[in-house]
Every structure is written in C-alpha cells, then in structure tokens.
Amino acid sequence: MSKKYTNQFLCSRMMLPEHRAKLARHRREAERAEQHRRPLLDQQQWEEFQAVLERSYFEGVRVKVTTLEEDGRCTVTGVVRRLLPALGAMELAGAKGWQRVELRRVVEMAEISREGDTSAGAAPRPSVFQPGRGTLT
User: Do 84 and 78 meet the contact criterion of CB atoms below 8 Å apart?
Assistant: First the structure.
C-alpha cells in the first residue's frame, strides 16, 4: 500500500515548461520589487533631511539627493534653488541644469560642499520640510 501512495504523487514532481517559465518570471519580479522597495525612514532621518535641505536652500550648500524611481535609484547633485510646496518637490541647480525632485521619492540626502558663504549673520529661518510626510510647509 505504501507503494501506491508513492506512485500516486510521482507525477506531481514534474513541471510543465510553461509553469517553470512563469515561476522563474515570478521570482525575478519579486527580486526586482525587493530591490526597488522604499526603505522605512524614521523621524531622525527625516530631521536630518530637513537640516540638509534648509542648509542647501538658505546657505548654498551642494547636496547629493538619491531618489527611488521605477527603474532604480537615481542620484542628483546640486544646490536647492526652489521649493515647490504645492507639488511636494524641490528644484536643484546642478551641472545638468535645473532638475525637479519629488520629496516623496527621496531615500538619501547628504551635503557635499558650500557654494558660497551667505549665511554670515543670517537670522534663523523657518522650517521648510515637514518631517514624516515628505512635503514642504
């Protein structure tokens, strides 16, 4: 009787080529989705983004902004010249000209260097980046 149970499920070990191809495609899509998954950013990270954004906008500090796009990560370098609160975006002036970056897509932001020191004696500025939401205030 044990031989009967063994032979009964023997045919389920084989896979049709169509099923094998679909399974391979599903695995590739799952791996791609994992690579393009947006990381969870905590409150401290949003505050660091805000500080970097404000220094770039008000003091002319060059920044490197990494965003998560459909086809992978994209890095833009420049100085924040315009903030677009209604669109939840900012515009950077860099070597390639003006580039618009949506704040909801930002995954990394870091300072590179100062363009010019215009902050001498400047008064503290109001917050322009709303932590936790990825939008401007």
Answer: no
Regarding whether 130 and 87 lie in a shared domain, the answer is yes
Domain that holds residue 28: 2-35
CA 48 to CA 10: how far, in whole Å? 59
Would you tell me how many other CB atoms lie within 10 Å of the CB of residue 82? 12
Task: Give the count of beta carbons closer than 10 Å to the beta carbon of residue 17.
Answer: 7
Query: pTM higher than 0.85 for the full model?
Result: no
| Residue 118: predicted pLDDT | 43
**Could you please report the per-residue DSSP string of 60-124?**
-EEEEEEEEETTEEEEEEEEEEEEETTTTEEEEEETTEEEEEEGGGEEEEEEEEES----TTPPP
Residue 53 corresponds to which tokens in the numbers above?
A: 């954004």
Joined tokens for residue 19 = 């099923």
